[in-house]
């Protein structure tokens, strides 16, 4: 059985607080969604703003492998024909194969919000759907506020669906617009709709009660074959149903095809790519695709996973493009450290002197303020250095920070960096909004001369914590830096009594780790 996946990131997602997509952003997101086989991409309301209309103009020049672009808009206004309605005309100008039309299914909204007659609203639904069907469009009808409407007046809510079906709608989508429905209600109501109409049934849930994914799953159990949401759950208020979770749930757990099987391992990478484009920090605890989804810290848990992965993992991490992580800490146990060591040198065993030496080094560094459970990249570099499996990509010669107050525009600091690669020395200067920003820019600017791949790398998070607060201003600080190249994510750590030096240590490790992984990737490709 197949389930149609309808992604609304470019409209519903754009309504989330903190998100503002450019036309270029929207084109990149559409391309990313198409790359994994999403069936429908709702791209915006061409009647609401020039940006959406421009998107549809540019999107016509793109070739989509699997996705159908969808233009979104409302039914005609009361008292006029569909042909005369400006919003309807804008939807036609978008020139998409599919249109999604939303209409009122809650009698209260009809009488008190759009303020028209109940029968006129039904005519508006029927006329608008019929208009687009007569022009050869695939029409998806979104019954706005359906579950609230059904609770208030079930007969009228069902009449709204019938009007859309009579107009020729290809799919009737039940919208939990306020996000207040419970799974049992969604199942019961969806089942009745499924049994009443011959038309396909869809579901569109919001997450205001934290149940958007559960509600979507229950709708499918009741007969829905079309699921709407946003890939990362972005949306107004508390967000929309998270499609990355729903796709994995439906396809892996229930055997219902949502995207081509070969693209399931791309779920995590596409999620991180979309977070980067959206300029929103990825939810690392997101099911399936989050960085913490398969992270293990407790010694007993780790021991269980090493003996039998399914004892503490509900799916194979690689099936969704993720990876198992054993977090380094004082509670993780010797086996965790050994696993990290054996990734670099498989011949080393639990009783090897190297293992004990690295454990002692770990303990000493944690006592000094280091924390490796969120900075496995620095720990990997530490192991490589201890085992003689590490060659620095550059030599750090000198850095200097100059602060400026009052700040000019957003630039309040300058960083001077001098590095050496082989026999060549490079010195650069950069300005930034703070000393760490300036230092990061200057270091990468110097190294990009030798390693152009670093142009894709940037900081995605920066955390500072005082380790020994009793030392006041002389206290050691721990800096955790999260970096990304738009696809992968890694975290490094530095500790010092000087926050700039701690940041410098973490920055250097971040770049060394990226270059190391790039070198390994090229070696694998060569083999």
Could you please describe the fold and organization of this structure?
There is one protein chain. The chain is built from 17 helices and 16 strands. The strands form four sheets. Strands 1-2-3-4-5-6-7-8 form an eight-stranded parallel β-barrel, surrounded by seven helices. A three-stranded antiparallel sheet has the order 11-12-13. The model has no long low-confidence stretch (mean pLDDT 91). Helix content is 40%, strand content 20%. The protein folds into three domains: 4-278, Aldolase class I (TIM Barrel), CATH 3.20.20.70; 295-387, no CATH class; 395-526, 2-Layer Sandwich (Double Stranded RNA Binding Domain), CATH 3.30.160.270. It is elongated and about 80 Å long. The protein has helices spanning 23-35, 50-59, 86-94, 107-112, 118-134, 146-152, 154-167, 183-196, 212-221, 243-253, 267-278, 299-307, 334-342, 353-367, 376-387, 435-447, 499-526, and strands spanning 4-7, 40-42, 68-74, 98-104, 138-144, 171-176, 200-205, 226-229, 295-296, 325-326, 395-408, 411-421, 424-432, 458-466, 477-484, 489-496. Strand 7, helix 9 and strand 8 (226-229) form a beta-alpha-beta unit. It is an alpha/beta fold and 527 residues long.
Helix and strand layout, with pairings?
Blueprint: E1 4-7, H1 23-35, E2 40-42, H2 50-59, E3 68-74, H3 86-94, E4 98-104, H4 107-112, H5 118-134, E5 138-144, H6 146-152, H7 154-167, E6 171-176, H8 183-196, E7 200-205, H9 212-221, E8 226-229, H10 243-253, H11 267-278, E9 295-296, H12 299-307, E10 325-326, H13 334-342, H14 353-367, H15 376-387, E11 395-408, E12 411-421, E13 424-432, H16 435-447, E14 458-466, E15 477-484, E16 489-496, H17 499-526
Parallel strand pairs: 1-2, 1-8, 2-3, 3-4, 4-5, 5-6, 6-7, 7-8, 9-10
Antiparallel strand pairs: 11-12, 12-13, 14-15, 15-16
